[in-house]
Amino acid sequence: MEDRSRHMRLREWLIAQIDSAKYAGLSWENEEKTMFRIPWKHAAKQDYRQNQDAALFKAWAMYKGKFQEGRDKADPSTWKTRLRCALNKSTDFQEVPERSQLDISEPYKVYRVLDDTGRAAEPAGNPVISLDSDCSKALRETPLPMQQDSSLGDSNKAVGWSVNGRAYACPSTGTNSIALYPSQVPITDCRLEVRLFYHGNLVQNLVTTSPDGCFILQGCAPVGNERIYGPCEAKKVFFPRPDIVHLAPGISEAMTRLLPHLEKGVLVWVAPDGVFIKRFCQGRVYWDGPLAEHRQKPNKLERERTCKLLDMTIFMQELQNHRQGTGPEPQYTVDLCFGEEFPDPSQPKTKKLITAQVIPLFAVECLRRHNAPNNVEMKQSPPHRKTSE
C-alpha cells in the first residue's frame, strides 16, 4: 500500500488528500467533485499558522522527497511555490480564478479537475458547464439528446446541454433560451430587466438580451482577457445624467459627486446555475435579494469578487413548493444600492441616491408557467409581479 502511494501522480495524490479531510480549507467546491478549493494564505500574514496553513504544501514536498523533518530547514514559501508550479504545469488541473477568494481572512484558490483530454471532468457521464471568466459566454452549449415535452409543442423542439448533472434544452426560437428537464418547467433565456432609480424616481427601464449579461456603470467598462476569451458583448447600461429628473439641489450635487466613483460599474449575468454579479467600480455597492445574508442590515459586494444573487436549484425547489401549496412564492428580484449602505432600516430605498432593480426574466416566465400550467400560448415577456420601490 505504501509503495503504491509513493508512485501516485499529482492528480491522484491531491484527490486523496481532499478526500482525507486532513487539511483545513482543502475541500471539494461542488457536489460533483469536479472543482476543489485549496487554502492559499500568504506567509507574511500576521495570523499565518505554519503548522496549519503550510501543512498541505509541506506534505507535497515530503511526498516528493524535497523535505525531510530534522534534516532540512522549514521553508513554507518554497513548499507553496513547488505545489503551485506543479499545479500550473499539470494537464490534470485548471485554475478557476473567478471562484477564488484571495482577499479574505482565510484565502483560497479554486481548481477544476480535467479529464485525460484536458477538458473539465464530467460528473455522472455528463459535461460540466462553468464560467471561464465573468465576461465569457454565460451559457456554453454541449448537444445532448433530449426528450420532447409534448406540452410545449413542436415549436419548442430543442438541442440541449447538461449542467452539474441536470439536463437543459434550448428551444429553437432564435433566442438564447433554456428549459429545465426532467421537471419540464421552462426557463426563458438570459434576459434581464434593469430599472435605474434616482432618489426613488425611475430614470431608465430596459431589457438586456446578451448572453454575457449587462454592465450597470458610469464611463467605461473594464477590459481584460479579450485575447483569451474574445470581446465582451455584455450590454452596457449607463447611469443617466442627474438632471434627467428634478431633484433638490443637495441631492443632485451628492449624486454628481457619487457617479464618478461608479466607473466600470458592476456586471450582472445569468448562468445555468443562477444569477451572478461582480463589482468593478471603486464606489461601494450594496444589495438585497434571494441569497442576501442580511435583511435588516447592509450586504456589501466586495470589489472584483463574484457573488451569487440567485441559486437555480433553490429557486426551482421553492417554485415546486409554491405550486404544491407548501411554501411562498419564490423571490427573484435583486436590489442594488450604489454608494450607500443597504438594506437600511433607518431609510427607505426611495430615499437612496442611486438604486437599481434587476429582474431575471426566466424567473418571471417560470413562475407564470407554474401558476398557469395549461396555458401553452404565452407571451415571451410577461409582466412580472409588482415589487415595492
From TrEMBL:
Biological processes per GO annotation? immune system process; positive regulation of transcription by RNA polymerase II
Q: Which SMART domains match?
A: IRF, IRF-3
User: Where does this protein reside within or beyond the cell?
Assistant: Nucleus
Q: Name one GO cellular component term.
A: nucleus
Query: InterPro entries in the record, alphabetically?
Result: Interferon_reg_fac_CS, Interferon_reg_fact_DNA-bd_dom, Interferon_reg_factor-3, SMAD-like_dom_sf, SMAD_FHA_dom_sf, WH-like_DNA-bd_sf, WH_DNA-bd_sf
Q: Name one GO molecular function term.
A: RNA polymerase II cis-regulatory region sequence-specific DNA binding
* Main subcellular localisation: nucleus
Q: What name is this protein filed under? A: IRF tryptophan pentad repeat domain-containing protein
Q: Which organism is it from?
A: Cyprinus carpio carpio
